[in-house]
């Protein structure tokens, strides 16, 4: 695989989507081929799965069903969009990936990080991100941001209890210890420009070491 695969993770309202869009525009303007995409979604089949998972009416959805649907959406997104882009040498910026499943379904939902990792290994077939930027924020602060964000639809996962969102953050902290070689933490409670600069610097460093390989 030739391109660089960067994922951005974190609790709700950490600023992932906003910063990815700014990175996409800036890298693209400086001539770097870049693709910004998201999970669950990014392509038609996965966007349809997203609608099913996040529908507020689906309160009866079983935790394992939820985990399998995220993994299925991921598989299709990888094969149809991410892998072809990486083969073309593109910088891929993906809003959430496998670590969301580990933190939300594995830890917060209580299915087990190892169990959810196993079903996801079947989905990704060994393809892991080169770098994962973890945007850290207290869930209360992140949820306040999205409540203020005009036009941001509130989905089934947003409506989970504050304890659930705190467990998501705790889950991410466990993952930082588990994958120190690829996961890097950024304080996302900082002003937007600082978060952006921190993310951009890390990616530029990666691009440099990648070019010298
Ligand atoms: N560093 C920041 N400081 C203040 N507000 C921010 C910051 N970053 C993002 N925001 C604002 O917070 C809101 C949520 O941002 P964004 O949608 O990028 O978060 P997200 O991490 O993608 O959320 P989710 O995963 O829940 O979709 C937006 O209104 C955005 O403008
Ligand atoms: C990929 C993935 C996502 N989730 C959760 C996290 C969020 O609550 C929603 C996605 O909404 P966003 O506004 O696009 O962030 O889905 C999850 O629980 N597990 C996953 O694997």
Automatic annotation (TrEMBL):
EC number, UniProt record: 2.7.4.9
Keyword terms of this UniProt record: ATP-binding, Kinase, Nucleotide biosynthesis, Nucleotide-binding, Transferase
Gene3D superfamilies: P-loop containing nucleotide triphosphate hydrolases
Record-linked PROSITE patterns: THYMIDYLATE_KINASE (PS01331)
Enzyme class at the top of the EC tree: transferase
A GO MF term: dTMP kinase activity
CDD domains: TMPK
Similarity comment: Belongs to the thymidylate kinase family.
Protein name (database record): Thymidylate kinase
